[in-house]
Amino acid sequence: MTCQQGRGVITLTEAADMIGRNYGHKPSVATVWRWARKGLGGYRLATIRIGRRYRTTITAVNEFVERLSNAEPREPRATSSDRARAHAFSDSEIAEAQGQRDKEVAEAKRRLRQYCGRSDALNRQSPCVENASPSRPTTREDDRNHQKTQRSF
To answer: Whole-prediction pTM value?
Structure first.
């Protein structure tokens, strides 16, 4: 049975077909389902659940489309660049954050000097090489020897 045979209640698939015939573009059934569950432009497609399936009426579909057609245009949603501008930091906040970062870097360098016991430790590629434990190889040759000893246990 189709909606032309006088039924008032139609499936969401039939609703999508009807919209396609009457308005020129057939939406997918998932789109009609989304209109029924979440709505579009502040309006929801009226549905009824019969058993495990959702149904709507021809009148409900026509009213839904008409409401959307006659609705006032909504303001466009904020884009990511709009949101970025809204959350942009002021110059004073940026300067404060940079000052905080500089303090943290200075503290990290101070701790590294204290840990290594040498002030030139920051200029070397691998700090505290003299204090490295034997289980941690420091050169490529040491690394190969270390791997050999680790495999033979």
So the answer is: 0.44
